[in-house]
Amino acid sequence: MNILLWHVHGSWTTAFVQGPHTYLVPVTPDRGPDGLGRARTFSWPESVREVTPAELADAAVDLVILQRPHEAELAERWLGRRPGRDVPAVYLEHNAPDGAVPLTRHPCADRDDLTIVHVTHFNRLFWDSGRTRAEVIEHGIVDPGHLYTGALPRAAVVVNEPIRRGRYTGTDLLPELSRAVPLDVFGMRTQGVGEQLGLSEDRCRAYELPQRDLHRAMAERRLYLHPVRWTSLGLSLLEAMHLGMPVVALAATEAVEAVPPGTGILSTRPEVLARAALHYLNEPQAAAEDGARARQCALERYGLKRFLDDWERLMTEVRS
How far apart are CA 305 and CA 312, in angstroms? Predict the structure, then answer.
């Protein structure tokens, strides 16, 4: 099967393209948001092919996976075919709704020609999809291996653009949490986050690492801290669990489903998270034991085989 999808979410796409199909990824001369082409920092198989808009006009496409509202118009213009009408299509929704959340209508609400696929049950619950068929296929992770050492008595925090995203990512909670455990913040555009929060370098350090180095660096930290208020479900949290890290997370959105008892601590109270982080900091054996359970739970629920099997089932249904 030839599947057209844009390079929007590198971690999710890395798992998806491990399947048995050919994946057509648009590329433009500027490699902008609508034409990034193949990933530079993730490992993708040869079955992922870059295609230009001109090449798509004659390409055999069996399924279109839309991930942003404007991609339907792009696909129609570049393919000369309408997604959902002339070629089977699904809309993959990565995000939780924003704005007036209880009333948020999905851009594809009330359509009978495609299926909305959510990556968490929380997202399906909170988006209003109207009459459009809505399914959930939970995340799958390419297993990085049990790399956890916890040798460094610090907490790993993974978040992109923590200053710009502010309260969404719980950046405002970092000063209080840093008093309990020193933080290492990984992600894009993290430099200077400690200074902007008024924290010393010892209490908050920032790193912008290539993907190939990130997992090993995370696994050297004693615990994974997830202070995010409003997100779909950070893949870095699931990756941390795969690495064998214990999790201390804000009990918000899908985190309450992803982190079962015995694998870490969830709470809506920052002071509880601070105490849990301090516990793991002072009890490395407890951290390793909870991290090992976290890894086993993550492998069972978010393993790659289950993920690919779920997608294979849905794609077969959509094309029938």
Answer: 10
Cα–Cα distances (Å) from 240 to 14, 130, 213, in that order, read 16, 35, 14
Question: Could you please report the per-residue DSSP string of 77-103?
Answer: HHHSS-BTTTB-EEEEE-S---SSGGG
Could you give the CA distance from residue 24 to residue 61 in angstroms, rounded to a whole number?
8
For residues 106 and 96, the answer to whether their CB atoms sit within 8 Å is no
* Residue that has been written with the tokens 């918000």 in this structure: 252
Q: Are 36 and 7 in contact (CB under 8 A)?
A: yes
Note the pLDDT of residue 320: 87
- The amino acid that residue 107 corresponds to is P
For residues 291 and 242, give the distance between their C-alpha atoms in angstroms, rounded to a whole number.
9
DSSP structure string for 234-295: -HHHHHHHHHT--EEEE--TTHHHHS-TTSEEEES-HHHHHHHHHHHHH-HHHHHHHHHHHH
Helix, strand, coil percentages for the chain (3-state, nearest 5): 35, 20, 40
Look up residue 243 and give its two tokens: 């690495």
Residue with tokens 């075919």: 81
Looking at residue 171, the DSSP 8-state letter turns out to be G
Distance CA 309, CA 303 (A): 10
DSSP 128: B
b/e sequence 142-156, b meaning 16+ C-beta within 10 Å: bebeebbebeeebbb
Going from the C-alpha of 273 to that of each of 129, 202, 270, the distances in angstroms are 34, 20, 5
Task: State residue 99's pLDDT score.
Answer: 84
The list of the chain residues with pLDDT below 50 reads none
